[in-house]
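Long-time lurker, first post. I've been practising inverse folding by hand and with some scripts of my own, and I keep getting stuck on stretches where the C-alpha coordinates seem ambiguous. Below is the full C-alpha coordinate string for one chain I'm working on. Before anyone asks, I'm not after the true native sequence, just a reasonable design that respects the backbone. If someone could post their per-position residues I'd love to compare against what I wrote down in my notebook.
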Protein backbone atom coordinates (compact mmCIF):
# COMPACT_ATOMS: atom_id res chain seq x y z
CA UNK A 1 0.00 0.00 0.00
CA UNK A 2 1.47 3.32 -1.06
CA UNK A 3 1.72 6.27 1.32
CA UNK A 4 -1.23 8.71 1.28
CA UNK A 5 -0.85 11.58 -1.16
CA UNK A 6 -0.78 14.78 0.92
CA UNK A 7 -1.04 17.23 -1.97
CA UNK A 8 -4.07 19.50 -2.37
CA UNK A 9 -7.23 18.09 -3.91
CA UNK A 10 -6.73 20.28 -7.00
CA UNK A 11 -3.22 18.90 -7.51
CA UNK A 12 -4.40 15.32 -7.10
CA UNK A 13 -7.28 15.84 -9.51
CA UNK A 14 -4.86 17.32 -12.02
CA UNK A 15 -2.74 14.18 -11.77
CA UNK A 16 -5.88 12.05 -12.11
CA UNK A 17 -6.94 13.76 -15.33
CA UNK A 18 -3.44 13.42 -16.77
CA UNK A 19 -3.52 9.66 -16.19
CA UNK A 20 -7.17 8.75 -16.75
CA UNK A 21 -8.87 11.63 -18.58
CA UNK A 22 -6.28 13.79 -20.36
CA UNK A 23 -8.21 16.99 -20.94
CA UNK A 24 -6.11 18.46 -23.75
CA UNK A 25 -6.23 15.30 -25.87
CA UNK A 26 -9.85 14.51 -25.03
CA UNK A 27 -11.06 18.06 -25.69
CA UNK A 28 -9.26 18.16 -29.05
CA UNK A 29 -10.79 14.88 -30.20
CA UNK A 30 -14.24 15.84 -28.95
CA UNK A 31 -14.05 19.25 -30.62
CA UNK A 32 -13.46 17.47 -33.93
CA UNK A 33 -16.11 14.84 -33.21
CA UNK A 34 -18.85 17.24 -32.13
CA UNK A 35 -18.27 19.93 -34.75
CA UNK A 36 -18.09 17.33 -37.52
CA UNK A 37 -21.27 15.68 -36.28
CA UNK A 38 -23.18 18.97 -36.20
CA UNK A 39 -21.87 19.83 -39.67
CA UNK A 40 -22.77 16.41 -41.06
CA UNK A 41 -26.34 16.69 -39.79
CA UNK A 42 -26.74 20.03 -41.55
CA UNK A 43 -25.09 18.82 -44.78
CA UNK A 44 -27.23 15.67 -44.93
CA UNK A 45 -30.40 17.71 -44.46
CA UNK A 46 -29.37 20.39 -46.96
CA UNK A 47 -29.47 23.11 -44.33
CA UNK A 48 -26.95 25.88 -43.59
CA UNK A 49 -24.70 25.36 -40.59
CA UNK A 50 -26.26 26.35 -37.25
CA UNK A 51 -25.03 29.10 -34.95
CA UNK A 52 -22.27 28.72 -32.38
CA UNK A 53 -24.75 27.65 -29.68
CA UNK A 54 -25.25 24.20 -31.22
CA UNK A 55 -21.49 23.58 -31.29
CA UNK A 56 -20.97 24.84 -27.74
CA UNK A 57 -23.75 22.73 -26.24
CA UNK A 58 -22.72 19.65 -28.21
CA UNK A 59 -19.10 19.99 -27.04
CA UNK A 60 -19.86 20.76 -23.38
CA UNK A 61 -22.41 17.97 -22.94
CA UNK A 62 -20.23 15.44 -24.77
CA UNK A 63 -17.20 16.31 -22.62
CA UNK A 64 -19.34 15.73 -19.52
CA UNK A 65 -20.69 12.46 -20.92
CA UNK A 66 -17.19 11.19 -21.60
CA UNK A 67 -16.11 12.02 -18.05
CA UNK A 68 -19.19 10.16 -16.78
CA UNK A 69 -18.14 7.20 -18.93
CA UNK A 70 -14.75 7.32 -17.25
CA UNK A 71 -16.39 7.42 -13.81
CA UNK A 72 -18.61 4.46 -14.76
CA UNK A 73 -15.53 2.52 -15.86
CA UNK A 74 -13.90 3.23 -12.50
CA UNK A 75 -16.91 1.69 -10.78
CA UNK A 76 -17.22 -1.45 -12.88
CA UNK A 77 -13.46 -2.04 -13.03
CA UNK A 78 -12.86 -1.24 -9.36
CA UNK A 79 -12.31 -4.80 -8.12
CA UNK A 80 -10.06 -5.76 -11.04
CA UNK A 81 -8.06 -2.54 -10.70
CA UNK A 82 -7.47 -3.14 -7.00
CA UNK A 83 -6.34 -6.70 -7.71
CA UNK A 84 -4.41 -6.41 -10.96
CA UNK A 85 -3.72 -2.68 -11.57
CA UNK A 86 -2.83 -1.20 -8.18
CA UNK A 87 -0.79 1.55 -9.86
CA UNK A 88 -3.93 3.27 -11.13
CA UNK A 89 -5.01 6.47 -9.32
CA UNK A 90 -7.94 5.11 -7.31
CA UNK A 91 -6.35 1.84 -6.08
CA UNK A 92 -3.17 3.65 -5.07
CA UNK A 93 -5.13 6.25 -3.10
CA UNK A 94 -4.59 9.34 -5.25
CA UNK A 95 -8.34 10.07 -5.24
CA UNK A 96 -11.34 8.14 -4.00
CA UNK A 97 -13.91 6.37 -6.13
CA UNK A 98 -16.58 8.31 -4.24
CA UNK A 99 -15.02 11.60 -5.36
CA UNK A 100 -14.84 10.66 -9.05
CA UNK A 101 -18.39 9.29 -9.09
CA UNK A 102 -19.54 12.36 -7.18
CA UNK A 103 -18.00 14.65 -9.79
CA UNK A 104 -19.72 12.68 -12.55
CA UNK A 105 -23.08 13.03 -10.81
CA UNK A 106 -22.49 16.73 -10.04
CA UNK A 107 -21.84 17.45 -13.71
CA UNK A 108 -25.19 15.99 -14.79
CA UNK A 109 -27.27 19.10 -13.92
CA UNK A 110 -24.83 21.26 -15.90
CA UNK A 111 -25.30 19.07 -18.97
CA UNK A 112 -29.08 19.02 -18.50
CA UNK A 113 -29.23 22.79 -18.05
CA UNK A 114 -27.15 23.42 -21.17
CA UNK A 115 -29.41 21.16 -23.23
CA UNK A 116 -32.58 22.69 -21.80
CA UNK A 117 -31.51 26.29 -22.31
CA UNK A 118 -30.53 25.64 -25.92
CA UNK A 119 -33.56 23.51 -26.90
CA UNK A 120 -35.70 21.79 -24.20
CA UNK A 121 -36.57 18.67 -26.27
CA UNK A 122 -32.85 17.79 -26.24
CA UNK A 123 -33.38 16.58 -22.67
CA UNK A 124 -35.24 13.55 -24.02
CA UNK A 125 -32.28 12.50 -26.17
CA UNK A 126 -29.87 13.16 -23.30
CA UNK A 127 -32.02 11.02 -20.99
CA UNK A 128 -31.74 8.16 -23.50
CA UNK A 129 -27.92 8.41 -23.36
CA UNK A 130 -27.96 8.41 -19.56
CA UNK A 131 -30.31 5.42 -19.49
CA UNK A 132 -27.87 3.40 -21.59
CA UNK A 133 -24.95 4.63 -19.49
CA UNK A 134 -26.75 3.43 -16.36
CA UNK A 135 -27.39 0.01 -17.90
CA UNK A 136 -23.73 -0.19 -18.94
CA UNK A 137 -22.61 0.68 -15.41
CA UNK A 138 -24.75 -2.17 -14.11
CA UNK A 139 -23.36 -4.45 -16.87
CA UNK A 140 -26.98 -4.87 -18.02
CA UNK A 141 -27.52 -6.89 -14.81
CA UNK A 142 -25.70 -9.89 -16.33
CA UNK A 143 -22.01 -9.11 -15.64
CA UNK A 144 -20.72 -12.68 -15.69
CA UNK A 145 -22.64 -13.56 -18.86
CA UNK A 146 -21.25 -10.48 -20.62
CA UNK A 147 -17.70 -11.06 -19.39
CA UNK A 148 -17.76 -14.55 -20.89
CA UNK A 149 -18.72 -13.08 -24.29
CA UNK A 150 -16.22 -10.31 -25.08
CA UNK A 151 -17.64 -9.43 -28.50
CA UNK A 152 -21.18 -9.12 -27.13
CA UNK A 153 -19.70 -6.99 -24.34
CA UNK A 154 -18.02 -4.80 -26.94
CA UNK A 155 -21.21 -4.30 -28.95
CA UNK A 156 -23.33 -3.55 -25.87
CA UNK A 157 -20.89 -0.91 -24.64
CA UNK A 158 -20.04 0.66 -27.99
CA UNK A 159 -23.76 1.17 -28.64
CA UNK A 160 -23.49 4.27 -26.48
CA UNK A 161 -21.37 5.97 -29.16
CA UNK A 162 -24.19 6.37 -31.73
CA UNK A 163 -26.48 7.41 -28.87
CA UNK A 164 -24.05 10.19 -27.90
CA UNK A 165 -23.80 11.14 -31.56
CA UNK A 166 -27.59 11.16 -31.78
CA UNK A 167 -27.58 13.83 -29.06
CA UNK A 168 -24.77 15.79 -30.73
CA UNK A 169 -26.48 15.83 -34.12
CA UNK A 170 -29.81 16.59 -32.46
CA UNK A 171 -28.46 20.01 -31.50
CA UNK A 172 -28.73 20.69 -35.25
CA UNK A 173 -31.71 18.68 -36.49
CA UNK A 174 -34.11 18.67 -33.53
CA UNK A 175 -34.87 22.43 -33.68
CA UNK A 176 -35.97 21.86 -37.31
CA UNK A 177 -37.68 18.46 -37.36
CA UNK A 178 -39.01 15.66 -35.19
CA UNK A 179 -36.75 13.12 -36.87
CA UNK A 180 -33.13 13.19 -38.04
CA UNK A 181 -32.24 13.24 -41.76
CA UNK A 182 -32.65 9.76 -43.22
CA UNK A 183 -29.00 9.46 -44.26
CA UNK A 184 -27.85 10.35 -40.73
CA UNK A 185 -28.10 6.68 -39.83
CA UNK A 186 -24.94 6.10 -41.91
CA UNK A 187 -23.20 8.62 -39.67
CA UNK A 188 -24.52 7.09 -36.45
CA UNK A 189 -23.41 3.65 -37.61
CA UNK A 190 -20.00 5.15 -38.39
CA UNK A 191 -19.79 6.29 -34.76
CA UNK A 192 -20.42 2.72 -33.61
CA UNK A 193 -17.77 1.32 -35.96
CA UNK A 194 -15.25 3.94 -34.90
CA UNK A 195 -15.94 3.19 -31.25
CA UNK A 196 -14.96 -0.41 -32.00
CA UNK A 197 -11.82 0.79 -33.82
CA UNK A 198 -10.73 2.76 -30.73
CA UNK A 199 -11.60 -0.03 -28.30
CA UNK A 200 -9.83 -2.71 -30.33
CA UNK A 201 -6.87 -0.44 -31.02
CA UNK A 202 -6.12 0.20 -27.36
CA UNK A 203 -6.28 -3.50 -26.57
CA UNK A 204 -3.86 -4.78 -29.21
CA UNK A 205 -0.85 -5.45 -26.99
CA UNK A 206 2.60 -6.92 -27.35
CA UNK A 207 2.78 -10.45 -25.86
CA UNK A 208 5.39 -9.37 -23.29
CA UNK A 209 3.07 -6.60 -22.07
CA UNK A 210 0.08 -8.86 -21.43
CA UNK A 211 -0.86 -8.97 -17.73
CA UNK A 212 -2.79 -11.46 -15.65
CA UNK A 213 -6.28 -10.16 -14.98
CA UNK A 214 -6.13 -7.53 -17.75
CA UNK A 215 -8.30 -8.61 -20.67
CA UNK A 216 -7.07 -7.60 -24.13
CA UNK A 217 -8.18 -8.69 -27.59
CA UNK A 218 -4.63 -9.71 -28.43
CA UNK A 219 -4.64 -11.89 -25.32
CA UNK A 220 -8.05 -13.38 -26.12
CA UNK A 221 -7.58 -14.05 -29.82
CA UNK A 222 -3.85 -13.70 -30.44
CA UNK A 223 -2.18 -10.72 -32.16
CA UNK A 224 -2.79 -11.92 -35.72
CA UNK A 225 -6.51 -12.64 -35.34
CA UNK A 226 -7.13 -9.59 -33.16
CA UNK A 227 -5.31 -7.41 -35.69
CA UNK A 228 -7.48 -8.80 -38.48
CA UNK A 229 -10.60 -8.05 -36.42
CA UNK A 230 -9.42 -4.47 -35.90
CA UNK A 231 -8.86 -4.09 -39.65
CA UNK A 232 -12.36 -5.44 -40.23
CA UNK A 233 -13.78 -2.69 -38.00
CA UNK A 234 -11.76 -0.10 -39.95
CA UNK A 235 -13.05 -1.44 -43.27
CA UNK A 236 -16.64 -1.29 -41.99
CA UNK A 237 -16.03 2.30 -40.89
CA UNK A 238 -14.64 3.12 -44.34
CA UNK A 239 -17.75 1.77 -46.09
CA UNK A 240 -20.00 3.81 -43.80
CA UNK A 241 -17.80 6.89 -44.26
CA UNK A 242 -18.18 6.61 -48.03
CA UNK A 243 -21.94 6.26 -47.53
CA UNK A 244 -21.96 9.55 -45.61
CA UNK A 245 -19.86 11.14 -48.35
CA UNK A 246 -22.20 9.99 -51.11
CA UNK A 247 -25.24 11.18 -49.18
CA UNK A 248 -23.68 14.61 -48.69
CA UNK A 249 -22.73 14.89 -52.39
CA UNK A 250 -18.97 14.44 -51.93
CA UNK A 251 -18.58 10.69 -52.37
CA UNK A 252 -15.53 10.75 -54.66
CA UNK A 253 -13.55 13.09 -52.41
CA UNK A 254 -14.41 11.18 -49.24
CA UNK A 255 -13.76 7.79 -50.86
CA UNK A 256 -10.39 8.90 -52.23
CA UNK A 257 -9.04 10.48 -49.05
CA UNK A 258 -10.59 7.72 -46.97
CA UNK A 259 -8.82 5.10 -49.08
CA UNK A 260 -5.47 6.76 -48.32
CA UNK A 261 -6.31 6.61 -44.61
CA UNK A 262 -7.36 2.98 -44.97
CA UNK A 263 -4.07 2.08 -46.64
CA UNK A 264 -2.15 3.73 -43.79
CA UNK A 265 -4.19 1.87 -41.18
CA UNK A 266 -3.78 -1.45 -43.01
CA UNK A 267 -0.03 -0.98 -43.23
CA UNK A 268 0.17 -0.33 -39.48
CA UNK A 269 -1.87 -3.36 -38.49
CA UNK A 270 -0.03 -5.67 -40.89
CA UNK A 271 3.22 -4.56 -39.26
CA UNK A 272 1.72 -5.26 -35.83
CA UNK A 273 0.53 -8.72 -36.89
CA UNK A 274 3.98 -9.56 -38.29
CA UNK A 275 5.83 -8.32 -35.20
CA UNK A 276 3.62 -7.40 -32.21
CA UNK A 277 6.30 -5.48 -30.34
CA UNK A 278 5.71 -2.83 -27.64
CA UNK A 279 6.47 -0.19 -30.30
CA UNK A 280 3.86 -1.69 -32.63
CA UNK A 281 1.38 -1.78 -29.73
CA UNK A 282 1.88 1.93 -29.07
CA UNK A 283 1.57 2.69 -32.76
CA UNK A 284 -1.75 0.87 -33.07
CA UNK A 285 -3.25 2.99 -30.30
CA UNK A 286 -2.12 6.15 -32.12
CA UNK A 287 -3.27 4.92 -35.55
CA UNK A 288 -6.72 4.08 -34.16
CA UNK A 289 -7.05 7.62 -32.85
CA UNK A 290 -5.83 9.13 -36.12
CA UNK A 291 -8.28 7.00 -38.10
CA UNK A 292 -11.24 8.19 -36.04
CA UNK A 293 -10.06 11.81 -36.16
CA UNK A 294 -9.69 11.59 -39.94
CA UNK A 295 -13.10 9.95 -40.38
CA UNK A 296 -14.94 12.71 -38.57
CA UNK A 297 -12.90 15.42 -40.28
CA UNK A 298 -13.87 14.00 -43.68
CA UNK A 299 -17.51 13.36 -42.78
CA UNK A 300 -18.06 16.80 -41.31
CA UNK A 301 -15.80 18.98 -43.41
CA UNK A 302 -15.93 17.42 -46.90
CA UNK A 303 -17.80 20.41 -48.41
CA UNK A 304 -15.18 22.80 -47.02
CA UNK A 305 -12.38 20.58 -48.35
CA UNK A 306 -14.09 20.41 -51.75
CA UNK A 307 -14.26 24.21 -51.94
CA UNK A 308 -10.64 24.47 -50.83
CA UNK A 309 -9.47 21.99 -53.49
CA UNK A 310 -11.55 23.77 -56.15
CA UNK A 311 -9.95 27.08 -55.21
CA UNK A 312 -6.44 25.63 -55.31
CA UNK A 313 -7.02 23.85 -58.62
CA UNK A 314 -8.90 26.73 -60.20
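-- Answer (accepted) --
I ran through it position by position. Result:
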Amino acid sequence: MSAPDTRSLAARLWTYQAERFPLAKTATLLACFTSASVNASAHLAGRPLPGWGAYAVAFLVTLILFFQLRAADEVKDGDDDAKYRPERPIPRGLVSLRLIVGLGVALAPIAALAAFVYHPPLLGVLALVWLWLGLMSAEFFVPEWLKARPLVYLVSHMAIMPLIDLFVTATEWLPHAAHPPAALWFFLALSFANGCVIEFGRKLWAPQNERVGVETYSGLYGPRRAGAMWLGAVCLAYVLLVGVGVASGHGVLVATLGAAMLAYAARAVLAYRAAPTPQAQARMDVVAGLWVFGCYALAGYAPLLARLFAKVMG
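A couple of notes from the structure itself: Residues 278-313 form the longest helix (36 residues). The mean pLDDT is 94. Happy to go over any region you disagree with.
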